[in-house]
UniProtKB/TrEMBL annotation:
It comes from the Bacteria. InterPro entries: GH, GH_1_N_CS, Glyco_hydro_1. Gene3D superfamilies: Glycosidases. This is 6-phospho-beta-glucosidase. Belongs to the glycosyl hydrolase 1 family. Pfam families: Glyco_hydro_1.
Length: 473
């Protein structure tokens, strides 16, 4: 449906861009920082070295000057827990001071900070001592860390996100989770969802008490699921994927209720995932102000009979089309490719219309304002004579922004848009082979090179878009 009258982007729309600490900062052992679970990860199949990444820790003033030139209204970054509490227990004032300087520099340049409290990088010591998010002890530690951030930064930060993509943490345990030895992965998944939901609720409640003016919400990774065909079994499979991957965690975080289909599915397999009434009450009492969601692609789901062999999703590590391993979850759904969509070299299917569908589905179900906190195209960029012509990225972003405007015209309250990423950073699953930024960083996986920053063609495109408040589409 085209709109006769398209609504403009709201005046105070947060045109932003995003990063996360372990992917961009480097300096992992400087000024008292402790080692995080991301710093200690080492994958044999792809680059994952957090030591230097894009050296933002040392170059944040230069990077913020670039943000100002770009015209960003807002910048989403995460606070490395291990700078504030290196071992999860002892406060490190030098870490607080770093983020104070970063926030001051943003404010000085009229850029509104959006702070992610947790982006996959808790202290390694908490993982070793009690298994990280598998243990309820994590709730107290996370709360202490969050309250320290509220006290230290809450006079200048108005927007907070609690936990980034709790649903993907449990979907990809090796990449961003961490299952303690000897624990069944399914049991771990539900324990982590429960602990994260309780931690999320307590952090929101503390925020309300300490910073009544602030806005806070959870963040989810949302790949909407299309049925592979109109066969009712495939339609059911798509519903299963949406409910298990996205609505189960969001219902819990936003409504304090557990999706009964999911509860029943696991009960039939001997796993009782019910939370106590007191826990659900506590979660219900901590409604978020908004839902942040990250959108890159859509999925296709087809029926997966009970007797099928299970397969976990397998990342395409080579960046050659066709390398992605589609998951199979017997009794629920199996993934498949979408013949109607183009894909990037890592098989992430490009689906701008899916973004509008995602906005509509989320608003319809939760009636909360939405924020798109990641969206972008991972690609190999080429630096030639100091320039990067990433026309493919402009095309991707432009088509997604058009769909955002249609979603706004549909009546969805969208607060802001934070493309991933402001600057090239270490991709979680593919290092520097796969870039996302508006700003190019001169380095490769195996060679740190000069780390010089270059503006890509997409930088100038986004600059024009922001200055026209989206009118130049
Ligand atoms: C998001 C994560 O899910 O996906 C980011 O929050 C990540 O940390 C992004 O970088 C893109 O994924 P990848 O694996 O291409 O870096």
């Amino acid at each position: 449906m085209e709109h006769l009258v398209q609504k403009p982007f709201p005046e105070n729309f947060l045109w932003g861009a995003a990063t996360a600490a372990y992917q961009v900062e480097g300096a992992i052992e400087e000024d008292g920082k402790g080692i995080s679970v991301q710093d200690s990860k080492n994958f044999s199949n792809y680059f994952h070295d957090t030591t230097v990444t894009s050296d933002h820790y040392h170059r944040f003033r230069e990077d913020i000057a670039l943000m100002k030139t770009l015209g960003l209204k807002s910048y989403r970054f995460s606070i490395a827990w291990t700078r504030i509490y290196p071992d999860g227990e002892t406060l490190n004032p030098a870490g607080v001071s770093f983020y104070n300087q970063l926030i001051d520099e943003l404010i000085k340049n009229n850029i509104e900070p959006l702070v992610t409290l947790y982006h996959f990088d808790h202290p390694q010591s908490l993982q070793e001592n009690f298994g990280g998010w598998y243990s309820e002890q994590m709730i107290t530690h996370f709360l202490t860390f969050a309250v320290t951030c509220f006290h230290a930064f809450g006079d200048r930060v108005r927007w907070f996100m609690t936990i980034c993509e709790s649903n993907n943490v449990v979907l990809y345990p090796d990449l961003i989770g961490g299952v303690p030895a000897g624990i069944d992965v399914e049991v771990w998944r539900f324990q982590v969802s429960r602990v994260m939901a309780l931690a999320n609720a307590r952090v929101i409640q503390s925020c309300r008490k300490l910073l009544p003016q602030a806005k806070i919400g959870p963040c989810i990774g949302y790949a909407i699921a299309y049925p592979a065909t109109s066969a009712p079994q495939d339609v059911m499979a798509a519903l299963n994927e949406d409910e298990f991957r996205t609505f189960y965690p969001l219902d819990l975080l936003c409504l304090g209720r557990q999706n009964p289909t999911v509860v029943n599915f696991f009960a039939c397999r001997g796993l009782d995932i019910r939370l106590s009434p007191t826990e659900l009450e506590e979660i219900k009492g901590a409604n978020p102000d908004f839902i942040a969601f990250n959108y890159y692609q859509s999925d296709v789901a087809k029926a997966c009979p009970d007797e099928s062999e299970e397969a976990q999703p397998g990342f395409n590590q080579e960046g050659k089309k066709g390398g992605f391993v589609y998951p199979r979850f017997p009794g629920l759904y199996a993934g498949d490719s979408n013949p109607y969509l183009e894909r990037n070299d890592w098989d992430w299917e490009i689906d701008p219309v899916g973004l509008r569908i995602a906005c509509r589905k989320l608003f319809d179900r939760y009636q909360l304002p939405l924020m798109i906190t990641e969206n972008g195209l991972g690609a190999r960029d080429t630096l030639a004579n100091g320039e990067i012509n990433d026309a493919y990225r402009i095309d991707y972003l432009q088509k997604h922004v058009e769909q955002m405007q249609l979603a706004i015209s549909d009546g969805v309250p969208l607060l802001g848009y934070y493309p991933w990423s402001f600057i090239d950073l270490m991709s979680t699953s593919n290092g520097y082979n796969k870039r996302y930024g508006f700003v190019y960083v001169d380095r490769e996986d195996s060679d740190i090179k000069t780390l010089t920053r270059y503006k890509k063609a997409s930088f100038y495109w986004y600059q024009r878009l922001i200055s026209s408040n989206g009118a130049l589409l």
